[in-house]
Amino acid sequence: MPKRTQPTEPLPKVGDIYAFRTSPISTFAPKDTNRVAAFKVVGADEKLVVVAVLDGVWDQYPTLTEADACSFLREHRFAFTGRAAIFGVNTEWWSFDRLDGVIRVGEGSVTTEEERLASDVLSFQPGSHFGALCGVNHSAEGEWRWKHDRDALTSEQAKVRAEQDAKRAAAEERYKTRLKRLTWDQLLSETPFERWVTSPPFPNAKFTGQARQTIQDACIKLRDLGPKPRKAEARSILKACVQWFNDADDRAGGVLETEEREDICAALEELAYVARHKELVHEIDEWRTW
Q1: How far apart are CA 204 and CA 150, in angstroms?
Q2: What's CA 262's distance to the chain center, in Å?
Q3: Is residue 87 within 8 Å of 131, Cβ to Cβ?
Q4: 263 phi and psi, to 5 degrees?
Q5: Which of 24, 85, 166, 244 is close enough to 53 for a disulfide, judged by CB 3.0 to 4.6 Å?
């Protein structure tokens, strides 16, 4: 069994405040921001650390008094409508690797509202958010630029979307070519979710290993049904596979994000296509909760 991933930094205490130098949120942004932001730990249990991005931005590291005087940030950039920049980080993902110049400022106070919001996250209430710790940079830097440099930020994001669209179109074309030639033997010779090797941002090794086995088991079951299994049998196998991901994601605290969703859906599409029931792909969204 794969070893359990360990956090790369000591786990913090509730009230701990950290400051960091913000980084560009896209490759089209200026290289140096010359800004410092901060976040506070507002809740924790054995599985999650809940952090609140603070609404202060400085040109140097803040003092504890300066940071502790800040409220939590509310996000308004692009499609956000004022949600609290408070989210849960899996304890196994507690790492400063993707943040620049992190320092512990000291221990601050946690307000009643912050405690309430942290409790919602820890109990997985609807509307709660989860992610890697580097998300504090996206919130802090993104909101500062939305307020002070919106036109340039909007232009950069348009370039990001254009770049992503071009990559997606090229990938889709390659994918269509692949599906035309795909066989069960080829699928079973490959490693599902091959890029899930770094955690974070991807799920930990145990989750990844079980996810790969789940896809391969479904592949074998479908293959053993013959060249074109009955649609009901294929649906049952694919639905059970999706249900495994539903349950595993819930147990892990919601680790399946955009890239993981895309990879899982692609794997399921390949299974449906080789089973000659590609129309089942359209039912997957009805089954999944991630």
Answers
A1: 36
A2: 12
A3: yes
A4: -65, -40
A5: 85
Write down the pLDDT at residue 8. 62
Query: Does a structural domain hold residue 143?
Result: yes
Q: Under a CB-based contact definition with an 8 Å cutoff, are residues 71 and 54 in contact?
A: yes
Tell me which H or E stretch contains 16.
Answer: strand 16-21
The H or E element spanning position 266 is helix 258-274
Helix ranges (H only) for 73-199 are 112-122, 135-148, 150-181, 184-189
Are 47 and 63 contacting, i.e. CB atoms less than 8 angstroms apart? no
Q: Do residues 140 and 189 both lie within one domain? A: no
**How far apart, in Å, are the Cα atoms of 225 and each of 157, 187, 222, 228, 277?**
47, 16, 5, 7, 13
234/268 Cα distance (integer angstroms): 11
Q: Are residues 46 and 114 in the same domain?
A: yes
pLDDT along the chain (290 residues), means of 10: 50 97 95 97 97 98 98 97 97 92 98 98 94 96 98 96 91 84 95 92 94 97 93 96 95 90 94 94 92
Contact indicator for 254, 130 with CB cutoff of 8 Å: yes
Q: Are 290 and 256 in contact (CB under 8 A)?
A: yes
Residue 182's SS3 state is coil
Coil, helix or strand for 53? strand
Measured in Å, how far apart are the chain's first and last C-alpha atoms?
Answer: 25
Report how far residue 49's alpha carbon sits from residue 136's, in angstroms, rounded to the nearest whole number.
13
Cβ(195)–Cβ(263) below 8 Å: yes
What is the distance of C-alpha 278 from the center of its chain? 28
pLDDT of amino acid 4: 34
Structure tokens at 150: 């919106």
Structural domain span for residue 246? 182-287
H or E element, residue 84: strand 83-84
